[in-house]
Amino acid sequence: MSTGRTREAPGTNLPATRSSFVGREREMAEIERGLASTRLLTLTGTGGSGKTRLALEVARRLVAEYPDGVWLVELAPLSEGALVPKEVARALGVSERPAQSLADTLAEVLRDRELLLVVDNCEHLLGATAHLVDSLLDSCPHLSILATSREVIGVEGETRWLVPPLSVPWGGSSSGELQDYESVRLFVERAGGRDPSFSLGPQNARAVAEICGRLEGIPLAIELAAARVGTLSLEQISARLGSSLDLLTRGGRTAEPRQRTLKGALDWSNELLSGPEKVLFRRLSVFAGGWTLKSAETVASGGGVAEGEILDLLFGLVDKSLVLAEGHEGVNVRYRMLEPVKQYAREKLEESGESGTVRRRHAEIFLDLAERARPELRGPEDRKWLERLEREHDNMRAALSFALEDEEAELALHMAGALGTFWHMHSHSDEGRKWLEEALARDTGAPVVVRIGALEALYWLAHDRWDHDRAQTIAREAMELSAGVEIDDGLAASLRIMSAGPAWMRGDYQRGKELLEESLQISRKAGDRILIAEALLQLAVTAWGVGDSERGKEIYEEGIILCREAGYTFRLPDFLLSLGYQLLLEGDYERGAALNEEAATLCREHGYARSLNLCLDNLGWATLLKGDHERAGPFYEESLAVSKELGDRACASESLDGLACSAAAAGEARRAGRLFGAAEAMREALSEAVPFQLKPEEIAWREPHRLRARSMLGEEAWERALAGGRAMGLKEAIDYALSPEKPAATPPASVQPPTSEPPAGLTTREVEVLGLVATGLTNAQVAERLFLSPRTVQRHLNSVYHKIGVSSRTAATRFALEHGLA
Question: Is the dihedral of CA 761, 765, 767, 773 positive or negative?
Fold first, then answer.
């Protein structure tokens, strides 16, 4: 029998858990390691970030590690610093001694004890807490302290540990994948506590992801949002979170007021700020997507806050966990607020009455940035400026929104016009068009030159989307505005380039050439090498259009030299890939591929997605023509992925043809037929807006593979495969082309061609239209499936009515069913 004294279990006053603790496994392990190497570890973070709960969970796991226990000291209810030692003594059961300060008594009692003290919510009593903690750590060598605070306590040897938000999804995740994110798991668990029938599934995955994303993983905010499940739909919760914190109320009734609502937690933080810190905090809410120190100094100074004070005040907000500092390799540190914190600060800004002034100043500095960037985007440092504008894109959007909301249409027009080149170069065409269209519609008094500049930007964005009718209208309006107005040579040359595009796209290559020659003459006289390059690029197209490929090659060679000399990186890939493609047509596969490889490298380095897909498509053809269909496939697939993102049907049709050839070479005849059909349909749709026909050499590249697939399938199966491909939309066709399993799917029943000649003299296209109409699709839906305009669909439908002798969709549907066309 043992005679040794049995060691008692360590004591603790930690509260029992009432709800499950979700996630934070990595954080708990790191905190435990931290406590093994330091005696004072302070968890910091914004209000609602879960500092207290995390500290308690770690403390519970460590009770057995400390012979004299783990003890919680809660400072939140205290209002006076003098009460801090009393609260520590109360938690530890230490009584006061006559003629001795309580701090000295604590130091004496704890001198030989090995325990962990958890000091919660120190931020409002930092001075008193720091004094006591400093004394205890000096006197008690076996004491460890785990503290929570909005900012560090500020004593020697302290280690700060910033509590991060819970992990959040950023879109595109399935319901199964969402379970990997801590914020989603917390929301689902707490929502299930409110409504036992609630579960995560495909039907609500997107809404849950949006809620957790809006709340940026702040645990308190997520729990408060989940408390609304059963009262509001998930969509309603997400929508309300977008504009107000009012939804995030009604926590547990017994909790501290600051813990019952997120706004209460942020009120608590705000009250602890100095006057100048409060001013800076609310003014910083005008930024979107983060900001730099320089931006903060420019936007937020004035009105009682000197520019020279901003740095120290900003550091104070970072220390108090209201602002996050995030480093980026090669650039200055950027700062940002979590979205719920920013909403709170924005409310304070609105209450202050200075919102309009601060937002206008914000808009003006980002207008200045956009205008400084515009010429740099056509120079050798365009990559640096493109990256900078991409980082500040959210701020640009916020500035444009303010200008349009506050009837500052001229400011919006200036900014949108200045950003046009960036939007064009970095594939933001649709968004840029929206901003420019709205600014142009609202503006009534901007200088003519400013309006022409905005129209020029809009022209290129319309050009990006092959909207040539709109591009022609824009060019005409810009030319009309310039009549009788003094403009510089650069704008005069640009206007001619704008007018030339719609001309040659309609097949009027001679008129296009005349306008471009005029532009070239003006640009050469002005010595503007950038505009010379722009004119040359289109002039080469007109040379191709009239069959003078040798002149086209000469122009491309000149453009390459010019762009290299001028450092005009943006257009260099276009000249390289265009000359490279011409060489492919002539059979020079080696040099053609080399030029396209150089172009693709430049595009990747600078982010020119709109040219990258063309380079990759050309490399696919170069590889296929050299007989390696397996290596050609990945080039086409990557090109299609980029084209899908851009909505580029022209390049997509080429890459679909390329993959069809690869499939045929691999013996996948049915797949090849569907891909050929999808490509054909896209080209026909494009041809309705602009002449778009394959060259004889291009037809020759495809024909052997078409014949191989056709002979393998037989005539009937070949026609069905083509019809199945023709019925696909852009996204459906690309998804099919990129599907890893490459299934030999059967074509939809709605587009099965008849096994004999179509009845009533219907054409193949009319059969396709009728088959889709018979499934109940509208003209607009049919147009989307077949890459046609709704007007063209109606024209085909009118022809069908006439040929089969009916006058309604119902009768036409009956005819389609009776004849096996649907």
Answer: negative
Residue 559 has pLDDT above 50, yes or no: yes
Residue 332's SS3 state is strand
Structure-block tokens of residue 407: 């009837």
Cα of first residue to Cα of last residue in the chain, in angstroms, is 92
DSSP state of 232: B
Please say whether the beta carbons of 115 and 69 come within 8 A. yes
pLDDT of 330 = 45
Question: Would you say residue 329 has pLDDT above 50?
Answer: no
Mean pLDDT of 238-266: 62
**Rounded Cα–Cα distance for residues 54 and 820 (Å):** 67
The first and second tokens of residue 195, run together, are 């409504």
pLDDT in tens, 188-225: 888 888 778 888 888 888 888 888 888 888 888 888 88
Which residues are bridge partners to 119 per DSSP? 73, 147
Paired strand residues for 115: 143
Residue 229 DSSP label: B
pLDDT range class, residue 812, cuts 50, 70, 90: confident
Residue 753 confidence (pLDDT): 37
Question: How far is residue 795's CA from residue 766's CA, in Å, rounded to a whole number?
Answer: 10
Length of the chain: 822
Supply the pTM of this predicted model: 0.74
Q: Which two tokens stand for residue 695?
A: 């060259």
Give the closest residue to 466 by CA, choosing from 294, 620, 653, 317: 653
Q: For residues 775 and 758, what is the distance between their CA atoms, to the nearest angstrom?
A: 18
Q: Residue 370: which pLDDT band, with cuts at 50, 70 and 90?
A: very high
Average the pLDDT over 575-584 and give the result: 96
* Better-scored residue on pLDDT, 235 or 386: 386
Q: What is the CA radius of gyration of the chain?
A: 34
Helix residue ranges, H only, 63-114: 84-92, 102-109
* Residue-level pLDDT at 607: 85
Query: Sign of the CA dihedral 204, 785, 636, 677?
Result: positive
* H/E element, 144: strand 143-149
Residue where the block lists tokens 């002979």: 711
610 CB neighbour count, 10 Å cutoff: 21
β-pair partners for 158 = 40
List the one residue out of 216, 165, 208 whose CA is nearest residue 189: 208
Assess contact for 545 and 507: CB atoms under 8 A. yes
For 325, which DSSP code?
Answer: E
Among residues 529, 540, 520, which one has the least CA distance to residue 570?
A: 529
Closest C-alpha to 628, from 585, 589, 588: 589
The phi and psi torsions of 334 (rounded to 5 degrees) equal -110, 150
Sheet of 158-162, strands arranged across: 70-74, 115-120, 143-149, 40-44, 158-162
At 186, list the tokens: 């917390």
In whole angstroms, what is the distance from residue 599 CA to residue 499 CA?
27
